[in-house]
Amino acid sequence: MRADALAFLAPAQDDEIAVLIERLRANYPEFDELPETVLELTVEDLIIDLEGFPATLLREACKRWRNSEARRAPTAGQLKAMVAKEYRTAERVAELATNALIRLGAAGLGVL
């Protein structure tokens, strides 16, 4: 049951991270100022650095960054910090939901 509740926290695939990076790239012109080889290495580094983080939370962190007053693209470390905070919150909510469903099932309400 807990695994189902945490499914939305599954790690992002490399292609999902690449899409998020491309979307950030579209919003921040400093990416366009990089030579192509440096840009490729930068994107590769971001994919490696963000590996293992949940796609759902990475998407939300990128959205929040784009909607902030930031004038530069975030570093992997900045995104990781945002995701870590959200991950702890999401994990706690999933745990509470799982426990509530278990209690409902144990009460004979046929939820499970």
Structure commentary:
- The N and C termini lie close together (9 Å).
- By secondary structure, this protein is mainly α.
- The chain has one domain.
- The chain has 5 helices and no strands.
- The model has no long low-confidence stretch (mean pLDDT 85).
- It has helices at 2-5, 14-27, 36-50, 55-66, 76-106.
Question: Quick recap of the structure?
Answer:
By secondary structure, the protein is an all-alpha fold. Helix content is 68%, strand content 0%. The protein has one domain.
Number of strands: 0
User: How is the main sheet built?
Assistant: none
Strand content: under 5%
Category by helix and strand content: mainly alpha
Order of helices and strands: HHHHH
- Report the uncertain regions: none
The rounded distance between the terminal residues' Cα atoms is 9 Å
Average pLDDT: 85
Number of helices: 5
Helix amount, in percent?
A: 55-70%
Overall, the morphology is elongated
Number of domains: 1
Features:
112 residues; mainly alpha; 68% helix; elongated
Itemize the secondary structure elements and their pairings.
Elements: H1 2-5, H2 14-27, H3 36-50, H4 55-66, H5 76-106
Helix pairs in contact: 2-3, 2-4, 4-5
